[in-house]
């Protein structure tokens, strides 16, 4: 039995001591196939066959790193959030005038809008998860979907459909409740909600943006928390639900900065989640002092101390010292380690190679083995 398996005896359920956020660099085969599909040179069925083959390959590569959790790398998506949100009843894509602005780079243009009452009746990603589940072997398969807050944060809402925000957030939570049950029925026992919306509370500029939209940071924090807690209120006991809080990740760039302080009490003591994936790979993320608001002994905090933005490996001793710093506020037993984000939040991917990606995951495993002996 390998050392990582021995360590996982300490933590036999997700999130694991060595974990990862989910998305992986798209392979050349995937990129080529998607271009051919867009050009009408191959069918959707042929594209899916190529995706299946590549997902099988990258699942085996994940297993080789020693990590216990596997994902499909989000290989069937162009975006980490839009692709899922468009599958909700009442949501439609549209051609936006411009992309999302990151530090020094802009995404391609794409948008979503709420044109009808929100609901969840079926979704193509249920089939996607079922395929991942069929090849997981003894590993744990994780499904990643955007947090419900992302529809409010990135979507245009027709006020004729939802003149009242409370009704919108209620219907959104109910749609997600159905989605969570559907993924559970498909076999999912580890579900992650990805969320960049919380970062709007982390800076004065973000809070000014909230007020410009006619509400207050206090009211929006409460709504965000309520939508998540209502969505997971009836989840089965054996379903682990975590949330990844991010400040943006596109081609190794970012959108937001600031520590968790602007929403720390809500995030760490107001969300009924099983775990939180926290971005802590550079100074933009602030200090660990925000962790003082962690009151629950049964919530796991996955420290994103390894960057997914660049290929250079961090000094292991530096990472261990940072884990020790976090352990001054939260028990070491409640901490885990991962990259701060995925490697490809969109199909373009971050600025590192696939080999560097796998080395990053191995690096997480090696450090976790040393820390949680």
UniProtKB/TrEMBL annotation:
The keyword Disulfide bond does not apply. Coiled coil: none annotated. The keyword Methyltransferase applies. It is an enzyme of class 2 (transferase). One of its GO terms (molecular function) is 5-methyltetrahydropteroyltriglutamate-homocysteine S-methyltransferase activity. Gene3D superfamilies: 3.20.20.210. One of its GO terms (biological process) is methylation. This is 5-methyltetrahydropteroyltriglutamate--homocysteine S-methyltransferase.
């Amino acid at each position: 039995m390998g050392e990582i398996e021995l360590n996982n005896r300490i933590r036999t359920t997700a999130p694991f001591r060595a974990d990862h956020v989910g998305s992986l660099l798209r392979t050349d085969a995937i990129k080529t196939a998607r271009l051919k599909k867009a050009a009408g040179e191959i069918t959707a069925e042929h594209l899916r066959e190529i995706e299946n083959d590549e997902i099988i390959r990258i699942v085996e590569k994940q297993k080789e790193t020693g990590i216990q959790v596997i994902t499909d790398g989000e290989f069937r998506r162009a975006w980490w959030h839009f692709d899922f949100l468009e599958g909700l009843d009442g949501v439609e894509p549209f051609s936006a005038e411009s992309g999302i602005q990151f530090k020094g780079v802009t995404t391609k243009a794409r948008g979503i809008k709420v044109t009808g009452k929100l609901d969840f009746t079926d979704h193509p990603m249920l089939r996607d998860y079922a395929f991942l589940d069929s090849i997981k072997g003894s590993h744990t398969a994780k499904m990643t979907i955007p947090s419900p807050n992302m529809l409010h944060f990135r979507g245009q809402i027709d006020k004729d459909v939802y003149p009242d925000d409370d009704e919108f957030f209620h219907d959104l939570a109910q749609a997600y409740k159905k989605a969570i049950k559907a993924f559970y029925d498909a076999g999912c026992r580890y579900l992650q909600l990805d969320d960049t919306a919380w970062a709007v509370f982390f800076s004065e500029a973000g809070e000014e943006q909230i007020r410009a939209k006619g509400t207050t940071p206090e009211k929006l924090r409460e709504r965000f928390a309520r939508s998540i807690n209502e969505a997971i209120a009836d989840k089965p006991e054996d379903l682990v639900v975590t949330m990844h809080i991010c400040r943006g990740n596109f081609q190794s760039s970012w959108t937001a900065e600031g520590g968790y302080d602007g929403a720390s009490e809500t995030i760490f003591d107001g969300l009924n989640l099983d775990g939180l994936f926290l971005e802590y790979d550079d100074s933009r993320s602030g200090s660990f002092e925000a962790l003082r608001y962690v009151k629950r002994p049964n919530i796991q905090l996955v420290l994103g101390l390894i960057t997914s933005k660049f290929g250079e490996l961090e000094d292991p001793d530096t990472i261990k010292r940072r884990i020790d710093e976090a352990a001054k506020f939260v028990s070491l037993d409640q901490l885990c380690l991962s990259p701060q984000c995925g490697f490809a939040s969109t199909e373009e991917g971050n600025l590192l190679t696939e080999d560097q990606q796998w080395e990053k995951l191995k690096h997480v495993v090696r450090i976790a083995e040393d820390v949680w002996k």
